[in-house]
Amino acid sequence: MDAVEIGIGEVVRRSGVPASTLRYYEERGLISCVRRRGLARVFEISVLEQLALIAVCRSAGFSLDEILLMFAPDGRPSPNRAMLAAKADELDATIRRLASMRDDLRHAAACPAPSHLECPSFRRVLNAPDLRRDGDERGLVGR
Amino acid sequence: MDAVEIGIGEVVRRSGVPASTLRYYEERGLISCVRRRGLARVFEISVLEQLALIAVCRSAGFSLDEILLMFAPDGRPSPNRAMLAAKADELDATIRRLASMRDDLRHAAACPAPSHLECPSFRRVLNAPDLRRDGDERGLVGR
DNA sequence: GTCCTACTTCAAGTCGGCTTGAGGTCAAGT
DNA sequence: ACTTGACCTCAAGCCGACTTGAAGTAGGAC
Question: What pLDDT digit, counting tens, does each position of A55-102 carry?
Fold first, then answer.
């Protein structure tokens, strides 16, 4: 039976997120348990959706702090829709950067030039304006 | 005059990369200096292009280790064009993921549903296949 | 010869996002 | 009564990519 409340073990089983991470997320205020049974946390099933939301955002490169700001504590309405739009624009820029990188990689894989650095088409990207400007978003690919 | 060899200070000035990072990159084998003048490193100007290449790759989400594997020590030919192609495919997947995230964010910013979690369109993404896969929760893409 | 300055080394610290481990609690089963 | 197993807390550790800081060195100007 799908109970309305589940223990941490069940959350782990159904979300794939380790217990240590769940506790960490709780500490960070990203999720919360509805109550305790003794010491043990009791969650509402909705935590599974919150976790999915967090996973999606993380995989899009957002930090836990950003996720916290974008969606209120309980995955709620979002006080700041403008921020969501801003994040979308940010993603757009990232996507364009990655697309051009992808094209260059494909070219590099096919290009017969002895060194990529000697290939005019590959060099193009090296002269792109803001290569190492301070606002670089880390972690788009990993984790 | 643009000399063929430059000191670390000049590299810093022209690349914007801090000296500490240059030394770190050298330690990691990403760049190397042509010789020493006393203790001081002397670089070839080509190091600037290598640094640009590294910056581009980093901004595309590649780790230093991956960059090391993709392009030989000196930014050279690339022994493994297949790997470049693989990386391009990886990027493609990432881009698709980000694009869908961007669309969802935009929708969330405009959607009037009280909670994003109640909006059918937003929930769609939460049920995407690879969110909570057993086994490889870690590293959807790389690293 | 001495001083400045740009450079050096090496060890340790930082940050985000967790994980690991030691030691404790508690309800249920035998 | 005791053990088991699932859960707990809290502190410390880890990884990648650097940065910071203390203490040393060498080349050129004066």
Answer: 989 989 899 999 998 886 555 555 678 888 889 999 999 999 999 989
Provide the 10 A C-beta neighbour count for residue A120: 8
Kindly report the bases of strand D lying within 7 A of a protein C-beta atom: 6-9, 16-21, 24-27
State the number of CA atoms in the 13 A half-sphere of A90 facing the CB. Answer: 16
pTM > 0.85: yes or no: no
Handedness of CA A19, A24, A27, A30 (dihedral sign): negative
Residue B23: CB less than 7 A from any atom in strand C = yes
Picking from A132-141, B45-54, B71-80, which range would have the lowest pLDDT averaged per residue?
Answer: A132-141
d(CA A45, CA A67): 20
For strand C, list residues 32-51 of chain B whose Cβ lies within 7 Å of it: 39-41
* Residue B50 and residue B31 in contact, taking contact as beta carbons nearer than 8 Å: yes
